[in-house]
Amino acid sequence: MSSEIKENKEATKPITLLREDLISAVAKAINESKLPAFVVEGVLKDFINEVHIASQRQLEADRKKWEETLKVQKDKQ
Hints:
The chain is an all-alpha fold and 77 residues long. Helices cover 77% and strands 0% of the residues. The chain is elongated and about 60 Å long.
């Protein structure tokens, strides 16, 4: 896929409104694409896979940061 999923740390809107915006944007893009459903389905499956990979990376980064924080706290004691 041509675009990589990137973490957005600049969100200022509540997550519920960001979610609503995303749903609207995806629906609009799908409708404007004029592609048949079987093509859209394949694209969305690929996209979901990329989102899953990005989510796993974020989980690992968060875990590493948490473990480092715990280690620093332990070392201070």
